[in-house]
Design a protein that fits this description.
Fic-like fold; Arc Repressor Mutant, subunit A; globular; single chain; mainly alpha; 15 helices
Length: about 375
């Protein structure tokens, strides 16, 4: 449905130029979303797929094991959209006591993303509402170190920003002037907690994501926080007990269409086209996450059976294999600690896994060796190649 422009333009000064900055109308859209036909069917499919994903705890022996790796996979993908080149292996290496040799700036951004998500989820679990204060806190975590740390982490911007182009005058999009940021974000917070609208949480998340990206309330990190907002909304709204739905891979794969639809919402009010795209992404992503979980369960079962068939010493090898499930990239010292065995035993049993083709040593060194559970990491890495 076309509603014409969904906001107003206001003059703003940026980089010595006067530009037309876009101030979005408050949510929900007027007239309301047309949920007939294809859009209603898309909503039902996405809701069913999300329900299956929420039930993943029944499938996995240890849901936290999946969550640990999946959150980090999302951090890599979301940061890649912003131009970082870090891989999941880079992040896991960095987390091994911040090992040298890993590209620092890129991997710090990814590590910050993990910290931001964990902070937001912990606050929600403690009963704190999803509000602008929480978004500012989460942004402070996101921008705590590395690039962007000097761009007012945790504070709404007080200067004009722009998206695309070489300067404000030829930018692809200019968000609201600084004076409009607080009112716009207050209206967004009000929409998130508006019980009278009675919108399904998936639709609320779809609308809130666009509104946040349009306001672009921070000097940096808006894209990553806008994607985090989806996970936080679905958790607070009761759709997911754990933050297991991440649309970064879907947005990455359909990047041009994503930006085209954001623009069409602003210029012509076509919320329905955006929402259908969003719901298709939820359905595809949730279904893929369930399939990934099943593949990992099958992998773990098959490798455990191979180890058990080895006979003598299998108990310690199984302990090391379990440690690699918890941390698919690990040093021998960490593995020994995780498995509750001595360092010599961890060394011997890890080499058994190497001989079986389950584990692989990464460094080529004799000391401070790092081992990776290749098949596990390969499953998680699918689609995670740098742009």
């Amino acid at each position: 449905m076309l509603r014409n422009v969904t906001g107003r333009y206001s003059a703003s000064l940026a980089g010595g130029e006067t530009v037309r900055a876009f101030v979005p109308d408050p949510l929900p859209p007027a007239p309301p979303l047309d949920l007939s036909g294809a859009l209603q069917a898309a909503l039902e499919r996405a809701t069913l797929a999300l329900g299956r994903l929420d039930s993943i705890a029944l499938l996995l022996p240890d849901p936290q094991l999946f969550l640990y790796a999946y959150v980090r996979r999302e951090a890599v993908l979301s940061s890649q959209i912003e131009g970082t080149q870090s891989s999941l292996s880079d992040l896991l290496l960095f987390e091994l006591d911040e090992m040298p040799g890993v590209p620092f700036d890129d991997v710090v951004e990814v590590s910050n993303y993990v910290a931001a998500l964990q902070h937001g989820m912990a606050r929600l679990s403690d009963g704190f509402p999803l509000c602008n204060r929480l978004l500012r806190e989460t942004h402070a975590q996101l921008m705590a170190r590395g690039r962007g740390a000097d761009k007012s982490p945790g504070e709404f911007r007080r200067s004009q920003n722009w998206i695309g182009g070489t300067r404000p005058g030829n930018a692809r999009f200019v968000p609201p002037p600084p004076r409009e940021v607080e009112p716009c974000m207050a209206a967004l917070e009000g929409f998130i907690h508006n019980e009278t609208a009675k919108l399904p949480i998936l639709l609320k998340a779809a609308l809130a994501h666009v509104q946040f990206e349009t306001i672009h309330p921070f000097l940096d990190g808006n894209g990553r926080l806008g994607r985090l907002l989806i996970a936080l909304l679905l958790h607070e709204g009761g759709a997911l007990a754990q933050p297991l739905l991440y649309l970064s891979l879907y947005f990455k794969q359909h990047r041009a269409r994503y930006y085209e639809l954001l623009d069409s919402v602003r210029t012509s009010g076509d919320w329905e086209a955006w929402v259908e795209f969003f719901l298709e992404g939820v359905e595809q992503t949730a279904t893929a996450a369930v399939q990934t979980a099943r593949r990992l369960v099958n992998l773990f079962q098959q490798d455990s059976q191979r180890v058990q068939a080895g006979g003598r010493g299998a108990a310690n090898v199984l302990r090391v294999l379990e440690a690699l499930r918890q941390r698919p990239l690990s040093t021998l010292r960490q593995t020994a600690q995780q498995a509750g065995i001595s360092f010599p035993t961890a060394t011997k049993t890890m080499l058994t896994l190497v001989d079986m083709g389950i584990a692989r040593e990464l460094t080529g060194q004799r000391r401070n060796r790092v081992f990776v559970y290749d098949a596990y990491l390969n499953i998680l890495n699918e689609g995670g190649e740098a742009l």
